[in-house]
Each structure stands twice: as C-alpha cells, then as structure tokens.
Amino acid sequence: QRGPSAVLEAIRERLAMTPGLYLQSIEQAGDQMVIKGNSPDESVVTQFGRSLEFSNGLFSNLNIETERKEV
After folding, report:
1. pLDDT of the residue at 20
2. Under 8 Å between Cβ of 63 and 49
3. How far apart are the first and last CA of the chain?
4. Which of 19, 29, 41, 45 is deepest in the core (most CB within 10 A)?
5. What is the DSSP letter of 58?
6. Which ranges of the chain would DSSP assign to H, the alpha helix?
7. pLDDT tens track, the chain, 71 positions
8. pLDDT the model gives residue 2
9. pTM for the complete prediction?
10. CA 12 – CA 70 distance, rounded (Å)
C-alpha cells in the first residue's frame, strides 16, 4: 500500500531501528516531505536518512541537512 499510511509506517519502522533520534515534525507540500528531529549524535541522523533510501521507492531524491545547536 502506498500513500500516507505507508509513508508513516516506513518512517515509524526506521525510527524504531535508530535509537537516539527524536522526531519533531513531518510536513508534506506537494511531492516534498520535510522530516525534522534531533539527536545528540549526527551519525544517527545520517543512518536514518540512508535507511529511507532503501524503502522500495517510497522515498527518493533524499537530502539530509543538519544543524548543530548548543545545548
């Protein structure tokens, strides 16, 4: 099944496989989706993004942006 429920399930599965990543929001505008979250470990963010690439075509043209903030 494709569509919103398939997308959310794929994200949920990958979040469960990526401890230390905390989801803040998911926004979709047209064919673009922005997933915002935080993690104390930048490599966890990259790992999550890479896991989305292997989603049977559900996600494509992935762009990962990180921002470091003082705690």
Report:
1. 94
2. no
3. 40
4. 45
5. S
6. 4-16, 42-53
7. 567 888 889 899 999 999 999 999 999 888 889 999 999 999 999 999 889 888 888 888 888 888 888 77
8. 63
9. 0.80
10. 28
Q: How wide is the angle at C-alpha 37 spanned by C-alphas 2 and 30, nearest 5°?
A: 40
Which residue matches tokens 């959310």? 8
| Tokens read off for 3 | 């569509």
Rounded CA separation 19/9 (Å):
17
Side chain identity at residue 27, one-letter code: E
Which two tokens mark 13? Answer: 């599965």
Q: Show the tokens assigned to 61.
A: 């043209």
CB-based contacts of 6: which residues, under 8 Å, 6+ apart? 58
| 70 token code pair | 């003082």
pLDDT at position 23 is 94
